[in-house]
């Protein structure tokens, strides 16, 4: 089996690593036996305005879950990511921006320039009325201004909520209203894969439903035509001219909110995951350094979008806190052709390349020739995140991109965890393709039986929970602490429940097997089946809908929708296309259904509960193991579903 395949760290990796195997073992042991002592020492990597005296004050006890780290300390995230580097690396490049169009010029921003831009941005936000604690929604493409806006919020103590620029006006307005933002930062348009995204138009549409928004700060990016609403919309290039580059960073309590990021759950609308200041930054910074074994002067590239947590922790906060040079890429892997990423690696002499299995599989599908046009010899380390990587894709990555000279880190974590949780440390932990390997410092994974019994044997299978708090953990669901407690701490009392299944092998390595709840993972992005269902039933011709995932070669999972039409409506290809577009409009292109099957009836129990297990099996084309269907109100619907299963 694939878990027999082991890649020991190379001699070069061992010789240069920041963490040897022995150090990892000793530090890990200390981190769980003496968390207070361990984290007190680690927190010294940050600059504190007021030192903390307390380290850990956390409880997973249901229902009084409470998580506080460094609770009496004060610091500022922007000062840690920028100001403290000025003396030693003011002229070093902080951000390399690589545009969508390979023929356009890239831009390099030094730490000194970053300081000026962020301070100016912060002063403009203040002039628009932003104060400490206010929520600012950021809806920007992958341009440096996205990082400026995030850091400017951090500088003045405003809480940012970045909404991925691929989300629809409806998705945007829901998020703006949920956290009651009074300011939105956006751009005229975004560029991605040669296409233009009408961001300002989307904001205008969204704001029809957002009474609380007073100001829109508008970045001129493409120069495209947009409507400007007098009194509400302010151009950044105009406002910034008068703005001072002096903006003293606000002293923030370690437990003051830093940002909200919406993510999908198994039920209801997306939840606002709240991260705070001290613990989050420590986690992002320490994991970025140790997991990527980051060395001064290296160019580091995480290919995520700042609209996701990966972009927050590993494009902006982690690398900048460490004084790294971080690349921000506006484009996509396969435009203008499938060598685009490899060009970027060659152009900027990238040492660390962190990407998603779905991108690897897509590039693998394009053929190995595309990988041979560029010089990839600057690479030292490769990383993946977002979903389990199949060993075949891992091997392809290892051979064709790493040329068998690079370590690979498969990092398991979540929006909720703030940063890496289970991952190899290069030079310390041998890789097994497909396994996220071992826990990071302070992380105590446990495998529970579905009934909640902790599995004590090394070899185990079940649901993945975490036994105790770590500094980067989310603190609450914004505005709904009860939902935080019930989602993560109710099913398995005393533990943080990840929502993932996993297996632990004989060497204590963790293999994530995917979500055990109704959350889909589409190309490494999370979507709740409930969200897609409610988008579908909002269409006037749809009476009922049930959505499940099915295996998809490139995306990992595809979206399979069973749709029952209103009586009198006719099934047609046109209606299929219409529903697909409808969902794209309601949520965004990432939620595009891959399959829509007409279902005159859905398999329900007598109490009316849809049996998704059966729908999943039918979608997977796995009719042999449907299990017990005798509790169905009408077992006949299953035969009908099988008969009409959509061909692929
Ligand atoms: C879910 C979290 C973490 C940033 C990107 C996604 C899956 C993530 C891995 C991995 C197997 C993984 C899990 C997790 N996942 N990384 N290395 N191996 N599965 O963040 O949107 O919060 O999704 O992504 O299922 O629960 P997210």
TrEMBL record:
Q: Where would I find the AMP-dependent synthetase/ligase domain in this sequence?
A: 83-469
Q: What does this protein do?
A: Catalyzes the conversion of acetate into acetyl-CoA (AcCoA), an essential intermediate at the junction of anabolic and catabolic pathways. AcsA undergoes a two-step reaction. In the first half reaction, AcsA combines acetate with ATP to form acetyl-adenylate (AcAMP) intermediate. In the second half reaction, it can then transfer the acetyl group from AcAMP to the sulfhydryl group of CoA, forming the product AcCoA.
Q: Which GO terms describe its molecular function?
A: acetate-CoA ligase activity; AMP binding; ATP binding; metal ion binding
Which coenzyme or cofactor does it need? Mg(2+)
InterPro entries, per this entry?
A: Ac_CoA_lig (IPR011904), ACAS_N (IPR032387), AMP-bd_C (IPR025110), AMP-bd_C_sf (IPR045851), AMP-binding_CS (IPR020845), AMP-dep_synth/lig_dom (IPR000873), ANL_N_sf (IPR042099)
Query: Which species?
Result: Devosia pacifica
Class of this enzyme: ligase
Which residues are listed for CoA binding in this entry? 192-195, 310, 334, 523, 584
Domain (Acetyl-coenzyme A synthetase N-terminal): residue spans on this chain = 24-81
Positions binding ATP in this chain are: 386-388, 410-415, 500, 515, 526
Enumerate the spans annotated as AMP-binding enzyme C-terminal domain. Answer: 531-609
What the record says about family reads: Belongs to the ATP-dependent AMP-binding enzyme family.
Give a short account of its post-translational modification: Acetylated. Deacetylation by the SIR2-homolog deacetylase activates the enzyme.
State which Enzyme Commission number(s) the record gives. Answer: 6.2.1.1
Q: What's in the keyword line of the UniProt record? A: Acetylation, ATP-binding, Ligase, Magnesium, Metal-binding, Nucleotide-binding
Q: Give the reaction(s) catalysed.
A: acetate + ATP + CoA = acetyl-CoA + AMP + diphosphate
The PTM N6-acetyllysine maps to 609
> Biological process GO terms, please?
acetyl-CoA biosynthetic process from acetate
The protein's name is: Acetyl-coenzyme A synthetase
- Is Nucleotide-binding there in the keyword field? yes
Binding of Mg(2+): at which residues? 537, 539, 542
């Amino acid at each position: 089996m694939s878990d027999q395949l082991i890649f020991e760290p190379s001699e070069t990796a061992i010789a240069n690593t920041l963490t040897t195997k022995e150090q990892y073992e000793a530090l890990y042991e200390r981190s769980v036996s003496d968390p207070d002592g361990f984290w007190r020492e680690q927190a010294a990597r940050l600059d504190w305005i007021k030192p903390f005296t307390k380290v850990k004050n956390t409880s997973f006890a249901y229902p009084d879950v409470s998580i506080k780290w460094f609770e009496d300390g004060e610091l500022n995230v922007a000062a840690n990511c920028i100001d403290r580097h000025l003396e030693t690396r003011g002229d070093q490049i902080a951000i390399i921006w690589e545009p969508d169009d390979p023929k356009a010029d890239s831009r390099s921003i030094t730490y000194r320039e970053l300081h000026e831009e962020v301070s100016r941005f912060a002063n403009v936000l203040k002039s628009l009325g932003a104060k400490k604690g206010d929520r600012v929604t950021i809806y920007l493409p992958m341009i440096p201004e996205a990082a400026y806006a995030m850091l400017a919020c951090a500088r003045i103590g405003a809480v940012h909520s970045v909404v991925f620029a691929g989300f629809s006006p409806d998705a945007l307005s829901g998020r703006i209203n949920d956290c009651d933002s009074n300011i939105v930062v956006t751009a005229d348009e975004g560029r991605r894969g040669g296409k233009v995204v009408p961001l300002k138009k989307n904001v205008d549409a969204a704001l029809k439903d957002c009474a609380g928004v007073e100001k829109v700060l508008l970045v001129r990016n493409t120069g495209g035509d947009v409507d400007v609403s007098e009194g509400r919309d302010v151009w950044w290039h105009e406002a910034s001219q008068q703005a001072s580059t002096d903006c003293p960073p606000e002293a923030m309590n370690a437990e003051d909110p830093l940002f909200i990021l919406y993510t999908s759950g198994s039920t209801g609308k997306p939840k606002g995951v709240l991260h705070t200041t001290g613990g989050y930054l420590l986690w992002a910074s320490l994991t970025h350094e140790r997991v990527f074994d980051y060395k001064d002067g290296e160019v580091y590239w995480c290919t995520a979008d700042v609209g996701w947590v990966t972009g927050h922790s590993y494009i902006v906060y982690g690398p900048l806190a460490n004084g790294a040079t971080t690349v921000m890429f506006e484009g996509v892997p396969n435009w203008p052709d499938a060598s685009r990423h490899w060009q970027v690696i060659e152009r900027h002499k990238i040492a660390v390349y962190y990407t998603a299995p779905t991108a690897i599989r897509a590039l693998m599908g394009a053929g190995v020739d595309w990988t041979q046009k560029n010089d990839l010899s600057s690479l030292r380390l490769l990383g993946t995140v977002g979903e389990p990587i199949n060993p075949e894709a891992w091997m392809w990555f290892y051979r064709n991109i790493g040329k068998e000279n690079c370590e690979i880190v498969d990092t398991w974590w979540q929006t909720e965890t703030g940063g890496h949780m289970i991952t190899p440390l290069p030079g310390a932990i041998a890789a097994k393709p497909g396994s996220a390997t071992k826990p990071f410092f302070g992380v105590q994974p446990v495998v529970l039986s579905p009934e909640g019994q902790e599995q004590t044997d090394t070899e185990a299978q079940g649901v993945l929970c975490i036994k105790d708090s770590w500094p980067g953990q989310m603190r609450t669901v914004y505005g709904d602490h009860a939902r935080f407690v019930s989602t993560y701490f109710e099913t398995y009392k005393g533990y943080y429940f990840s929502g993932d299944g996993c297996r632990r092998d004989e060497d204590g390595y963790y293999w994530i097997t995917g979500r055990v709840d109704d959350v889909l993972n589409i190309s490494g992005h999370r979507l709740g089946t409930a969200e897609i269902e409610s988008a579908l039933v909002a269409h006037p011709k749809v009476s009922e809908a049930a959505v499940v995932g099915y295996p998809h070669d490139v995306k990992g999972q595809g979206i399979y929708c069973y749709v029952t039409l209103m009586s009198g409506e006719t099934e047609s290809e046109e209606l299929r296309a219409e529903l697909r577009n409808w969902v794209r409009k309601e949520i965004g292109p990432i939620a595009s259904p891959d399959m829509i099957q007409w279902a005159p009836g859905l398999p329900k129990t007598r109490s009316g509960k849809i049996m998704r297990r059966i729908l999943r099996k039918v979608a997977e084309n796995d009719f042999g193991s449907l299990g017990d269907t005798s509790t169905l109100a009408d077992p006949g619907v299953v035969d009908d579903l099988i008969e009409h299963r959509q061909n692929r």
